[in-house]
Amino acid sequence: ALFFALILIINSSMTETNIQLRQPAKLDYASPIQFRFKCTKLPEVEFTCQTANIPGISLGGATQPTPLVDVPIPGDKINYDSLDITFLVDENLNNYKEIHDWLIGLGFPKDYTQFQNLQASGADRFPGSTRSTAPTGKATTAPLRDGGIYSDATLTVLNSKNIAKTEIRFQNIYPTSLGGLNYDIKNTDVNYIQASVSFAYTLYEIVQISTT
Question: What is the rounded CA–CA span in Å between residue 38 and residue 50?
Answer without folding.
Answer: 12
